[in-house]
Amino acid sequence: MNSHRLCCALWTFYAIILTRCLHGQTEECRTGMYPPNGPTFKGDVPWYTVDLNEPPVKRWNGVVKDKKNELVAVMQAIKELANSLVHSGRLVDLVDNVLPLMLDTLPYPFNEEIRGIAISSGAPVGEVILFNIFYEVFTVCTSVVAEDTSGNLYHGRNLDFGLLMGWNHKNHSWIITDKLKPLAVNVDFKRNNATVFKSTSFAGYVGMLTGIRPKQFTLTMNERFNFDGGYVGIFEWILGKRDGMWMGFLTRTVLENVTSYEDAKTQLALTKLLAPAYFILGGNQTGQGCVITRTRINALDVWEIDLKLGRWYVLETNYDHWEEPFILDDRRTPAMKCMNKTTQAYISFKTMYDVLSTKPVLNKLTTYTTLMEVSSGKLESFLRDCPDPCSPW
């Protein structure tokens, strides 16, 4: 990166931090936001069906057909961002010439699904792989599992993505975040014409970040910031060390194949990963809700709902729950303040959406909000916006 680009990047980062400080960290807990309405609501996330009986190379054809232009636009924006950061073009050369060699090293059926997405979209295989890699290292989110006084379990999440990935000074928004929103899709995964699980995802991404196995469990994944992070695992994979599993592939595998909360918890806690993560898991019985804090090797902590201790919900952003969050990124405190103000007796889709609509829980990185109820198998997702004044993250 030349000195001019580095200077511009540093000034942009400084301006964003200054904006965050000037706008303040919190606002009063929102109410009356559900059903979604007003300037923070950008529309419903559309539904698609993926047939797991189809050959993997063909499964995503219908989704990609509808979202081809948006997917190509995002991948082009990512390449342009890479070019601006490393002006020599070495990152783009890596994407075009090295990443395609990874395809056959990825586990089945994900390698074949990525191959099919590349064929359907006309995009180079390396760019589709890069698009899938990004979610291993750049996902900044808020997830919560809560139990009401009747024993019903609710699971909500804001999917925040695009941190430091190009700031649009005119629109006061993150470039990649804006381009991702049109790619958000709800997917009903079926086998033998019956729903196996449902998920909110992005067209072109074959892993899962948000999903429900109706009447059995709900699952979301948040990034865990750590020096031994996703970059390390991905480079090890490229160099031939492949004993860890991709986070998004693990969550997809669990949603597709596991049939109980306890078995899901075991797999999420014990499977070796490419990157550290938080898995937020909800079950179908009282007390079944937890945050699994992961290293790449094993579970560091499993933090569970415990009604005897008065803990009727667990809430995770991107910092270990026993540590203070980063002062410039404290979404946890306002989210917990609003959950406590709601109280267990009044938790519902409506009130959980209010919590997830309160700034800075809702911020410039938020692409969608998803609400799930395991007993009914209900999943609702909504595209979001955060008009100024709003925290950059």
TrEMBL record:
One of its GO terms (cellular component) is membrane. Pathway: Sphingolipid metabolism; Lipid metabolism; sphingolipid metabolism. The keyword Phosphoprotein does not apply. It is an enzyme of class 3 (hydrolase). Its EC number is 3.5.1.23. GO terms for biological process: fatty acid metabolic process; sphingolipid metabolic process. Gene3D superfamilies: Penicillin V Acylase, Chain A. InterPro entries: Acid_ceramidase-like, Acid_ceramidase_N, CBAH/NAAA_C. The active site is at residue 141. GO terms for molecular function: fatty acid amide hydrolase activity; N-acylsphingosine amidohydrolase activity. This is Acid ceramidase. The gene is LOC105911479.
